[in-house]
Write a structure and sequence with these properties.
By secondary structure, the chain is α/β, with parallel strands linked by helices. It contains 13 helices and 13 strands. Helix 1 packs across helix 13, helix 6 packs parallel to helix 7 and helix 6 packs across helix 11.
Length: 379
């Protein structure tokens, strides 16, 4: 199928490099965009750092992979910063050599320290690059690299206020895993007879203990008051057994697992969520229209989760409470109010669907291809 983007040659297929190494929060949206580009017939190479989390995320990837070890810089000056600078210098040289061997038409970099080597190498040999920022507050790598980017793609429109004024900024939304757009293989509804309100709780593998403790106790108290609720709870790796026991003791119908790879079935069942406010979580809640009480992870860099959550709160799309203010009595009262006020949940659901762009992978793919096409027309 011919590429739909304007070009000297309407059948032109581009070679796109996607630098998305480091963490799952960078790999997964990079991979989603890479797959969208690949489905259009373009050649895509992933640039990764070789960390184990990357291998787990790209198990189904069928395109090229280049691995260049990278290391983040410390937040404060230290001897380890000198070592990181030396490793970055080496990474830039390695990336430059690999790009000269098989030159991409455009580079997409998803942020984090893993983007620095490929982007700085692309600069040296005149390859245009697009950056993607998932959070409201741009990370250090994005801020450092933004001025010379062809375009900075953002998940949140509010990011433009934290980027250099000379940047070309485009709001594309967050690329979501392709699995999220497919029907769940086996819906979990048969685990929950009746029509009770369903609450999804997910704190992630890091920093989940506070949510697990407060939510389980609050929901047990809520059930003791006579409210009919059921729970979908992703506990992280350490808390699954005692969370199951606590729900069982309170006679609360609960599906409890450490993680789950088919999140679409959980979102489809949930009336509301209690969760963190990472960029991917915000995007998935918006995509599925699940109202949420957000409890930002308090130790995130620059407290960026709080900024994400407050943007949604301002739009009426979520409620926000600091972890330090999350008491069990407060949470019981909050949940009771939400259960008794379904109209408020409906308003939040509508606001959430309008709060963030959908189809981020295809929108970002469009942007990347437009940059590649502009380069071709300039040559």
């Amino acid at each position: 199928m011919a590429d739909k983007h304007h070009s000297k040659n309407p059948n032109r297929h581009f070679h796109v490099a996607v630098a998305c190494g480091g963490t799952g929060g960078h790999v997964m949206p990079g991979l989603a965009t890479a797959q969208a580009l690949q489905q259009r017939g373009h050649t895509v190479t992933l640039w990764l750092t070789g960390k184990p989390v990357e291998d787990q995320s790209i198990a189904d990837w069928s395109g090229g992979i280049i691995r260049v070890p990278a290391r983040g810089f410390p937040t404060r000056p230290s001897p380890s910063g000198l070592m990181a600078a030396w490793k970055l210098h080496r990474a830039v040289n390695v990336c430059r050599q690999k790009m000269l061997e098989s030159s991409p038409d455009v580079l997409l970099a998803m942020g984090s320290y893993a983007s620095a080597g490929p982007v700085m190498a692309a600069r040296k040999i005149g390859i245009p690059y697009v950056l993607h920022e998932a959070n409201v507050l741009p990370g250090r790598a994005i801020r450092f690299l933004a001025r010379r980017a062809a375009t900075v793609a953002c998940h949140f429109d509010a990011s433009r206020y934290y980027l250099p004024r000379r940047c070309t900024i485009k709001v594309t939304g967050m690329p979501l895993r392709s699995s999220l757009t497919m029907p769940a293989p086996e819906p979990l509804a048969h685990h929950f007879p009746g029509a009770a309100r369903t609450i999804l709780i997910m704190g992630g593998s890091r920093g989940a203990r506070a949510l697990n403790e407060s939510a389980t106790e609050a929901i047990g108290n809520l059930a003791a008051r006579g409210f009919s609720v059921r729970v979908l709870h992703l506990t992280g790796s350490e808390d699954v057994e005692w969370v199951r026991e606590r729900y069982a003791d309170a006679a609360v119908p609960a599906w409890v697992e450490p993680f789950h790879n088919q999140m679409q079935e959980l979102y489809a069942l949930a009336d509301m969520a209690i969760c963190r406010a990472g960029a991917s979580t915000c995007a998935e809640l918006a995509h599925f229209g699940v109202p949420a009480l957000m409890v930002p992870y308090p130790y995130a860099a620059n407290d960026h989760q709080t900024v994400n959550a407050r943007v949604l709160e301002k739009q009426g799309a979520a409620d926000v409470v600091a972890e330090s203010s999350l008491s069990v009595p407060w949470l019981v009262d909050y949940l009771e109010e939400m259960i008794q006020n379904p109209e408020r949940l409906d308003r939040m659901r509508t606001a959430l669907r309008d709060a963030l762009p959908s189809d981020g992978a295809n929108a970002l793919a469009d942007l990347v291809l437009s940059v590649a096409t502009a380069r071709e027309l300039d040559e």
